[in-house]
């Protein structure tokens, strides 16, 4: 099921920070669906399996379709990531409120700001993560460019391994040196769902990543893991485990383009030609920031 959130009730009084406004103005081209310069509403994609309801909030294209996941586990909520902007985070907060259930655990999956930039919008919610992720984002989070995510910086550490939330087993895993230096994945084995976030992008250009060779190896290991069939990703709508093969192929293509290129623009052109239907050109534009030749 897909529905569009009501922006009028959500965004009244919500202010975009100067840094976020500059990002939108300078990096994301406005489209015809924008009303008087405001971002369009995000969308929510919902499905239920084996007693658990999964809601994926998908930010609009101008915010590179970054996701947050609201997962109903019995009478409790598992919240994954906070999106980037106050506008989109407010929409996620409304989605949480619409369930009528309290948040048991809210966590940030990795250090990139499009996943934690909206943390301060969630009043009274502590966001946990791993110590390495918290320290990896601390300098940027305290730079003054966006509201400081105090509840994340002062939050607790997520315990890896299997736990129960609302009577439902959840396994928290960590993976190193792929799209980010460290990333959290949540696997719900009884529902055969894995929340992989930025280990997999669905129809969106990938950020170049920390170590693409290791990233491929990580995805190959996940491809051989029989404990899940459905993937909740960090950019794009929920998908099937077949997207692991697509991601592996994408990263191999990116590596080949990188090796053949003499400048970042060559990589960007090659990936646009190879994946013409993908969105999120801003992320592809990060190639220059990662360029090491």
Chain-wise SSE layout:
Blueprint: E1 2-4, H1 7-11, H2 18-27, E2 43-49, E3 52-58, E4 67-73, E5 76-80, H3 86-99, E6 103-107, H4 113-116, E7 127-128, H5 131-141, H6 150-153, E8 161-165, E9 168-176, E10 182-188, E11 193-201, H7 212-223, E12 230-235, E13 239-240, H8 243-260, H9 264-274, H10 281-284, H11 287-290
Parallel strand pairs: 5-6, 6-7, 11-12
Antiparallel strand pairs: 1-2, 2-3, 3-4, 4-5, 8-9, 9-10, 10-11, 12-13
Can you put this structure into words, describing what you see?
With 293 residues, the chain is α+β, with helices and mostly antiparallel strands. The protein has one domain (2-290): 4-Layer Sandwich (Metallo-beta-lactamase, Chain A), CATH 3.60.15.10. It has eleven helices and 13 strands. The protein has helices spanning 7-11, 18-27, 86-99, 113-116, 131-141, 150-153, 212-223, 243-260, 264-274, 281-284, 287-290; strands spanning 2-4, 43-49, 52-58, 67-73, 76-80, 103-107, 127-128, 161-165, 168-176, 182-188, 193-201, 230-235, 239-240. The strands form two sheets. Strands 1-2-3-4-5-6-7 form a seven-stranded mixed sheet. Helix 8 (243-260) runs antiparallel to helix 9. The longest helix is centred in the last third of the chain and has 18 residues, at 243-260. The chain is globular. The termini are far apart.
CATH class: Alpha Beta
Main sheet: strands, sense, barrel: 7 strands, mixed
Q: Beta-strand percentage?
A: 25-35%
The overall average pLDDT, rounded, is 89
Query: In whole angstroms, how far apart are the ends?
Result: 45 Å
> How many DSSP E strands?
13
Largest sheet: spatial strand order: 1-2-3-4-5-6-7
Give the CA-based shape: globular
* Rounded Rg: 18 Å
Q: Give the class from helix and strand content and strand pairing.
A: alpha+beta
Number of self-contained structural domains:
1
Task: Name the helix and strand elements from N-terminus to C-terminus, one letter apiece.
Answer: EHHEEEEHEHEHHEEEEHEEHHHH
Helix content: 25-40%
